[in-house]
């Protein structure tokens, strides 16, 4: 069964929409097989976000992602990687259509509520990073 790493970012918890987002994942029919709340360190974020580490906005992302706890999950199902990316909506918040998580709740590209792995390879790496 395909699996992906999903993470509800600190804004999802601060804005009290974590339950709503979890509910959407459940209603879609995907299986949440592991879930935990955790506080991220800058070191783990530099690994997780290595692909954006040189971007000018990266310091803001570090500050944001360490501003409060996150909820990490392993989510399973057929086509779950692509399926979760579609439920989430695209990275740029203005492009995220209503009906998607980012389209319904995000008004910032940096603070966009949810992370989801973008490939099988990255999913396995991220699951290992956050669940060991
Ligand atoms: P993704 O979360 O949709 O996979 P990535 O390109 O992997 O998007 O970027 C990781 C995170 O970096 C995004 O979720 C967002 O928080 C932040 N980010 C990406 N591009 C921008 C930008 O242009 N401005 C501000 N933050 C950005
Ligand atoms: Mg990404």
Secondary structure class reads alpha+beta
Overall number of domains: 1
Order of strands, main sheet, comes to 2-3-1-4
The SSE string, one letter per element, is EHHEHHEHHEH
Oligomer status: single chain
Q: Whole-number radius of gyration? A: 14 Å
Q: In CATH terms, what is the architecture? A: 2-Layer Sandwich
Ligand species: inosine-5'-diphosphate, magnesium ion
Instruction: Report the average pLDDT across residues.
Output: 98
Q: Work out the helix count.
A: 7
Give the CATH level 1 class. Alpha Beta
Q: Which residues sit in consecutive blocks of at least 5 with pLDDT less than 50?
A: none
What is the rounded distance between the termini?
A: 19 Å
Q: Helical amount among residues, as a percent range?
A: 40-55%
């Amino acid at each position: 069964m395909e699996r992906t790493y999903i993470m509800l970012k600190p804004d999802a918890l601060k804005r009290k929409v974590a339950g709503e987002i979890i509910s959407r994942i459940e209603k879609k029919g995907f299986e949440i097989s592991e879930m935990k709340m955790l506080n991220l360190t800058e070191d783990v974020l530099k690994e997780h976000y290595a692909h954006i580490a040189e971007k000018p906005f990266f310091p803001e992302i570090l500050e944001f992602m360490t501003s409060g706890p996150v909820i990490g999950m392993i989510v399973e199902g057929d086509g779950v990687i692509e399926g979760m990316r579609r439920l989430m909506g695209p990275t740029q918040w203005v492009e995220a259509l209503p009906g998607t998580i980012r389209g319904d709740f995000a008004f910032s590209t940096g603070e966009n509520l949810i992370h989801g792995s973008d490939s099988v390879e990255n999913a396995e790496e991220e699951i290992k990073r956050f669940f060991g």
